[in-house]
Design a protein that fits this description.
Elements: E1 2-6, H1 10-18, E2 24-26, H2 29-34, H3 41-54, E3 58-62, H4 68-79, E4 85-90, H5 93-104, E5 109-114, H6 120-126, E6 130-133, H7 135-140, H8 145-159, E7 164-165, H9 173-181, E8 186-189, H10 191-196, H11 201-216, H12 221-226
Parallel strand pairs: 1-2, 1-8, 2-3, 3-4, 4-5, 5-6, 6-7
Helix pairs in contact: 4-5
């Protein structure tokens, strides 16, 4: 299992790291904008430095540009910031052209914003590290994300590729549970979902009850009957 937090805010990274499950973080221009960061090279450098200082394995930072040459230039700068950086490239026509050139340069990449199973085919051919389908957004568009992910997984498994399917745009922990039970093992979670992973109200209540018992000593008979 490889789990990421979809955030550009180090406080969110640290919260997951304290609980021991965060492998890395993912970002994109929308995440940066939402969290008050400017989309520019200085921001990318600061993010990479912060991720390295905290001991994260990876940070995914998205290249920008309207044309393939612009995307490739942005990607090369981002990739040079730290060896734990994975460059995100949109699965657009311009993005795929840039990714093909970057693959020959051994740039670690995530092809992002996947909505269809056939987009896994160029991802496998190029040999990227990750492909990121948008689960919730596929639902919004009236598509069947489970079927898309199943086909992607079948393609990847039959090709013996190491490309990981990094599932993004999750709306609930229940969606993650469902997908993990189907054999998916790589997810990125918004900070609110990340904070709730592994936590259940009934478990918290049971833990509090255990602590009361440890503090108060032997239980009265009616308490023992409740066990």
């Amino acid at each position: 299992m490889r789990l990421f937090i979809d955030s550009a805010e180090p406080r969110n990274w640290e919260a997951g790291m304290r609980r021991g499950w965060v492998y890395g973080v993912t970002t994109n221009p929308l995440v940066l904008q939402r969290e008050g960061r400017t989309v520019k090279p200085e921001t990318y450098r600061a993010l990479a430095d912060e991720a390295r200082a905290l001991g994260l394995a990876e940070i995914h930072i998205q290249a920008t540009g309207a044309k393939s040459a612009e995307i490739a230039e942005s990607a090369r700068f981002i990739a040079g910031l730290w060896d734990g950086v994975v460059v995100k490239i949109p699965l657009s026509e311009a993005g795929l052209t840039a990714a093909a050139a970057l693959s020959a340069e051994k740039v670690p990449m995530t092809l992002t914003a996947a909505y269809a199973a056939h987009q896994m085919i160029p991802a496998l051919a190029i040999g990227v590290s990750y492909v990121a389908p948008y689960y919730g957004r596929m639902l919004d568009a009236g598509r069947d994300p489970d079927a898309v992910l199943a086909r992607m997984k079948a393609m990847r498994d039959r090709s013996d590729s190491t490309t990981r399917i990094l599932i993004a745009s999750l709306r609930s922990i229940e969606q993650m549970e469902h997908l993990a039970a189907l054999g998916h093992d790589t997810f990125t979670l918004a900070p609110k979902l990340a904070a709730s992973l592994g936590i259940d109200d009934l478990t918290e209540a049971a833990a509090a009850e255990f602590e009361r018992a440890a503090r108060d000593g032997p239980n009265p008979p009616e308490a023992r009957r409740r066990q």
